[in-house]
Amino acid sequence: MDVRDIVSGALLYPLQNIKALVIFIILGIIAGVIGGLSIMDFLFTLIGLNDIINGGLSIIKIILFSIVLLLILGYMLDIVKWGINCRTDSPNLDIVRQVSNAIKQIIVIIVYFAIPFICYFILGIFFQPWLTSLITIILFVIFGLAEIMAKCRLAKHDNLGEALAIREAINDIFRVGLTKIAITFVILIVSWFVINTITAVIMYYNQTVGGILWGIFGVYTIFFYYRATGLLYSEL
After folding, report:
1. What is the model's pLDDT at position 17?
2. Model-level pTM greater than 0.70?
3. Contact 135, 107 (CB under 8 A)
4. How many CA atoms lie within 13 A of 176 on its CB side?
């Protein structure tokens, strides 16, 4: 599957699954509303502007907000899996499993990005700052790409151990093709930038319309990103 097929397939996927797209747009809006209000309530409680009851309710809201975000993250891992298997339908909601998978994803992200951070501090002891920074940037690129492959490995095998097999994840970069990955993600980043720039301009003139469009296109680009990620890995 070449880059053109991956990008076009990922772009069309949300439109082929409007029901799932709408559900997650609504979940995104709910998360935004609950999260914003609960965080503000909690902060007001800390400085004594709200009573204890409202503070307790804000904590409950934060928990609900976290569950919704974890559900979205876990569902996106299923979209990666569906992409690997080249399925055109959308995954079903499975709150327990998808929240669990989201936690696994967070562990993967922490492990892969902790390594460059640790290396930065160790290298700083022995090398000049410019060389330490250069090596760290290279490590961030390598482990950033490896983290994407690890996400695919987690989706494919449904096993955290497979995702944390760092050497295999790095090898997967070259199995998929470094050039293919780079071109695909440049297109994804440019698309994200264009969409966010347009919605930011609209939001400047009309916050309500801009906010709604940002929510819709934000979820759309998330579907697009995770579908493309799965399709990249589909030939392994």
Report:
1. 93
2. yes
3. no
4. 30
Give the separation between CA 175 and CA 74, rounded to whole angstroms: 25
Ramachandran angles phi, psi of 191, nearest 5°: -60, -45
Cα–Cα distance for residue pair 121/116, rounded to 1 Å: 9
Number of helical H runs and strand E runs in the chain: 9, 0
SS (H, E, C) the chain: CCHHHHHHHHHHHHHHCHHHHHHHHHHHHHHHHHHHHHHHHHHHHHCCCCCHHHHHHHHHHHHHHHHHHHHHHHHHHHHHHHHHCCCCCCCCCCHHHHHHHHHHHHHHHHHHHHHHHHHHHHHHHHCCHHHHHHHHHHHHHHHHHHHHHHHHHHHHHCCHHHHCCHHHHHHHHHHHCHHHHHHHHHHHHHHHHHHHHHHHHHHHHCHHHHHHHHHHHHHHHHHHHHHHHHHHHCCC
pLDDT exceeds 60 at position 143? yes
DSSP sequence for 99-110: HHHHHHHHHHHH
Number of domains the chain is built from: 1
Of residues 63 and 107, more confidence is placed in: 107
Residue tagged 């993967």 (tokens)? 108
pLDDT at 180 over 60: yes
Containing structural domain, residue 30:
3-233
Alpha-carbon distance 67 to 75, whole Å? 12
